[in-house]
Amino acid sequence: MHVDKAKKRIAKQVKKGFKGYPQISIEYFGTDASCATLVVVQFTLEEDSEVQEERFASQSDAREDETIQTALIKIIDRASAISVIQVPTLTLIK
């Protein structure tokens, strides 16, 4: 899947807002605002349940990495996520 297509599919899910559980949360991290080198994906099955977490690292910008973006789509689909939440800004790592 092309990176632009994957990003559009993720954005469409995020735009729906919180609709319930299961929920996927996506947060990007980087050493500066121009390059996200880490993606943290959290899965919550139901309210007050244990959060499962998966991390993806990249040498380049993970937001433009086709493999990572495609993996995010697969995680959302396989989890049958009703809600997809994405932190709108890149979180800086010190």
Description:
Helices cover 28% and strands 29% of the residues. With 94 residues, the chain is α/β, with parallel strands linked by helices. Strands 1, 2, 3, 4 and 5 form a five-stranded mixed β-sheet that branches. A hairpin with a 7-residue loop joins strand 2 (38-44) and strand 3 (52-57). The longest helix has 13 residues, at 3-15.
- Rounded to the nearest angstrom, the distance between the terminal CA atoms is 33 Å
Instruction: Give the proportion of residues in helices.
Output: 25-40%
- Percent strand equals 25-35%
Count of alpha and pi helical runs: 2
Q: What is the element string, with H for helices and E for strands? A: HEEEHEE
| Rg over alpha carbons | 13 Å
> Strand tally, please?
5
| Global mean pLDDT | 95
Task: Characterize the overall form.
Answer: globular
Largest sheet: 5 strands, mixed
Class from helix and strand fractions: alpha/beta
Stretches with pLDDT under 50, minimum 5 residues: none
